[in-house]
Amino acid sequence: MKTLRILAPVAIAATLALGATACGSSPSPASAPSQSFAAGTTMSKIQQRGKVIVGVKFDQPMFGVKNPVSGEMEGLDIELAKRIAKDLTGSEDNIEYVEAVTANREAFLQQNKVDLILASYAVTDERKKVVAFAGPYLESGVSMMVRNDESSISTKDDLNGKPVCTTTGARAAQLLPTLAPQAKLTLFGTYSECAQALKQKRVDAVVTNESLLLGLIEQNKGDFKVVGDYLATEEYAIGSAKDDTAWHDYLDGFLKKIADNGEWKKAYDNTIGAVRPSDVTAPHITL
Prior knowledge:
The protein is an alpha/beta fold. About 30% of the residues lie in helices and about 25% in strands. It has 11 helices and 14 strands. It has a 5-stranded mixed sheet with strand order 12-11-13-10-14, sandwiched between helices. Helix 3 packs antiparallel against helix 10 (about 265-270).
């Protein structure tokens, strides 16, 4: 189903060098976790540690963003992370957030810097070679965002000859050379940098998943718009270490559980749905 163009079952150098700014607090006492796990598993280690360490975006509206006023983390990925923390530790507050930009997500998992990645993480065959994906938890499409007064871009062909922005390591960076071979690709570490470049007319379009673009539009009211049809479809999933089968299976089971008990819909409605309300259901778990 395609609703509002979201499919339903839907700095730079320093950040790229490490990309890790942790925030969180000491584990909070709470009700008992929902289940116990075999010793040595990632789930058991998290319970013994008392918190989940999650790689998230800090500047991605509706997915993972640090509120500049309250300092609190907000977005769909944050809502899901909180529910995982509550399921494993008894409290949604038992989380350490680590900033993960597009280019360092695989490295963070391979280096065990985080337990999982919830950072608008699109599934690709290349990424599957080095990490495991649980889900998907959202399906959407790759779109183009331009300035509100832009009238010369409405199809992928219109990108040819123009400066187009996406982030280093993004799937859009792989798609654009095929979709618009003459586009002048500009890569930044974060989409907020792409939005700033678009506002300053250093680029003429930003290309990425439409759900991400909607967040940028909401954050920059009146400046941008989404144009044209989907350039491709994408699945967002939870990233975890490649060979940790038990952890992957837990995450898949968790996503199935929150789809069945209504918690996925609550998380969606509180984030993406608050900007673009639609009658959606969680995607089928296929990964």
